[in-house]
Specification:
This protein has 175 residues and is α+β, with helices and mostly antiparallel strands. The chain is 18% helix and 29% strand. The strands form five sheets. Strands 1, 8, 10, 11 and 12 form a five-stranded antiparallel sheet that branches.
Length: 175
């Protein structure tokens, strides 16, 4: 009777292992490719070398990010006027992001799909760095972020936070 129970337990264990393995190997593209910027915990992984962001004159709606320089202070913003920031612990050469986990809940990486339009920023200074299967926009090698505390265009509430977060000038220098 005991060998019979051992065999049944072994069969049940193997069946469970196969079911778990099948669940883990899902190939549903919608489950693995989020369309929104990464805002959940992300492991710290070294980034690859930044690549130039492709230039465009007439990007498809919804796929382009516009980067502009506004005002006398020359702060870099996105096309909606939201201030962009750089993190002092990131590295510009080669581009490497270090903000992950709880950090990306407050500092949202600027994720781009294909094209970036510029106004007041040299296209050659823009690039991307790979981040969890997506492209994070860089300026002069620095990965770019938005601050959740900026709720309206033109706000710079993240400037100087923790002595590590800074607005950027058109050259990528800390503002």
């Amino acid at each position: 009777m005991i060998p019979h129970r051992i065999v049944l337990a072994s069969v049940a264990g193997l069946a469970s292992a196969f079911l778990l393995a099948a669940c883990d190997s899902s190939t549903d593209a919608s489950a693995t490719a989020p369309a929104a910027p990464v805002t959940s915990a992300a492991p710290v992984t070294p980034a690859t070398t930044a690549t130039p962001a492709p230039a465009t004159t007439a990007p498809a709606a919804g796929n382009a990010v516009t980067i502009t320089v506004r005002g006398a202070d020359g702060v870099v913003t996105d096309g909606n006027g939201m201030t962009l920031y750089r993190y002092a612990k990131d590295e510009p050469n080669p581009s490497k992001w270090t903000c992950s986990g709880a950090c990306v809940k407050t500092w949202l990486p600027v994720i781009v799909q294909d094209s970036v339009r510029t106004q007041g920023v040299q296209q050659s200074l823009l690039g991307t760095v790979h981040r969890d299967g997506q492209k994070q926009l860089t300026l002069a090698g620095w990965p770019l972020y938005r601050y959740v505390g900026d709720t309206a265009a033109g706000q710079t509430n993240g400037q100087g936070k923790d002595g590590q977060w800074h607005t950027l000038t058109a050259s990528g220098a800390a503002g």
